[in-house]
């Protein structure tokens, strides 16, 4: 079937078919679905686009991307921006030859390059899905990146619903099992709610937690945008209560058969009692009972040993993935000039490896 497909931008009336395609064919479908793309537009002021490959009236491949243009400065293109997002190509799982699927992949990538290169480009970054990492040679051939970066994806495969608690605990390391058991003896209760007070607690505690480690928190406006753009059934916000006091919260996003671990927060004074461990355990059990098959912890930077160890304790398996950065010479020159302003000009977009801009 090589050559019997057409690549073009997604049209407005085709979004239901596209969303269904992602949920059926991607292990991490959240990052390309229309509601998440609307969320990106709301939080970053970007424009989003989807390239789709059609064959015999069905979608057989897709590639979402976003671009942010600053007048008089230039454009940065990401597939995709925002914390821990993935972009790259999703292909139909239906039986096709390797040659067919790679032809579709390369055609989508070629159209992406043509769109990205169309005037005043500073840089374009492709953030691979872990499942696409094995096909990086095709990405290199088409994108011709001049820089690369890397993260470690971590995913826990959830056991079947039968004997969920025992099966789940067996995937954990011994220390994590002990912490779970400790958390279950604290008299905590879990409250799953979409009420304003819970979102306020999440945002404020997140800001406090990030300030304590010198990190940059997600703005409160991003949490507000989630509630405005993502349907309620995609959001699960749980709060750990101790004698009526909120002690920790956990925000998950649910899509396809995957739970996305988005924002965990904890009140410092309660940390020894493991309220966040309690919420993770309860969230995983509920995910299993609701038919979800995997728990995506998101990307971990190389060098974040403690965070990597924490996720691995809950049975997470490493799935490395790459950032491929394409940029014209004049774009790199301008990025170097703008280095100190990039976080303000292009918030939540990946521009270029900062160490290479000196």
Automatic annotation (TrEMBL):
Keywords: Transferase. It comes from the Bacteria. It comes from Bradyrhizobium uaiense. Residues 175-299 form the BioF2-like acetyltransferase domain. Pfam families: Acetyltransf_6. The keyword Translocase does not apply. This is GNAT family N-acetyltransferase. The keyword Transferase applies. GO terms for molecular function: transferase activity.
